[in-house]
């Protein structure tokens, strides 16, 4: 049975897990390479390869950012952003978000505001 992923996995977590696994692999097989460690980590969590695990984590992080944008808009009273989110199907993440803690650092809130801004990335 595969291990459950951590609550908020990210690429830094994945890199650290692969490096730790590489150290363990090299204890028995000195010629072990990083891609073997990445594959071993992925297999432990029920994925076929390191690439599929990485893609899954990137998808999760994208959904979490979207969810945070909706909640930030609600806290700020930005009704138009909330309407667009509901119209665009963002509500699929709301049940998960309701269980998430609302305390966040000012820095992460500022970064989220920039990433949620519709003007960012548009020329």
What does the model show?
- There is one protein chain.
- The chain starts with 10 loop residues before the first helix and ends in a 7-residue tail after the last helix.
- The protein has 123 residues and is mainly α.
- It has helices at 11-28, 34-44, 50-76, 79-87, 94-98, 106-116.
- Helix 1 packs across helix 2, helix 2 packs across helix 3 and helix 3 runs antiparallel to helix 4.
- The protein has two domains: 11-57; 64-116, no CATH class.
- Helix content is 66%, strand content 0%.
- 15% of the residues are buried.
- It is elongated, with a radius of gyration of 18 Å.
> How are helices and strands ordered from N to C?
HHHHHH
Mean pLDDT: 77
What number of structural domains do the residues give?
2
Query: What is the total tally of β strands?
Result: 0
Task: Decide which structural class fits the backbone.
Answer: mainly alpha
Low-confidence stretches: 91-105, 119-123
Radius of gyration: 18 Å
- Determine the N-to-C terminus distance: 48 Å
Approximately what portion of the residues adopt beta-strand conformation? under 5%
Percent of residues in helical segments?
Answer: 55-70%
Number of helices in the DSSP assignment: 6
Biggest β-sheet description: none
Q: What overall geometry do the principal axes of the alpha carbons give? A: elongated
Key attributes of the depicted protein:
single chain; 123 residues; mainly alpha; 2 domains; 6 helices; 66% helix
Please describe the topology of this protein.
Blueprint: H1 11-28, H2 34-44, H3 50-76, H4 79-87, H5 94-98, H6 106-116
């Amino acid at each position: 049975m595969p291990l459950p992923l951590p609550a908020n996995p990210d690429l830094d977590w994945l890199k650290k897990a692969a490096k730790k696994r590489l150290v363990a692999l090299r204890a028995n097989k000195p010629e072990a390479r990083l891609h073997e460690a990445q594959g071993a980590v992925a297999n432990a969590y029920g994925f076929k390869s390191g690439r599929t695990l990485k893609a899954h984590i990137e998808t999760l992080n994208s959904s979490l950012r979207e969810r945070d944008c909706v909640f930030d808009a609600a806290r700020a009273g930005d009704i138009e952003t909330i309407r667009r989110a509901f119209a665009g199907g963002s509500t699929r993440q709301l049940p998960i978000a309701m269980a998430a803690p609302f305390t966040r650092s000012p820095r992460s809130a500022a970064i989220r505001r920039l990433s949620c801004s519709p003007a960012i990335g548009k020329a």
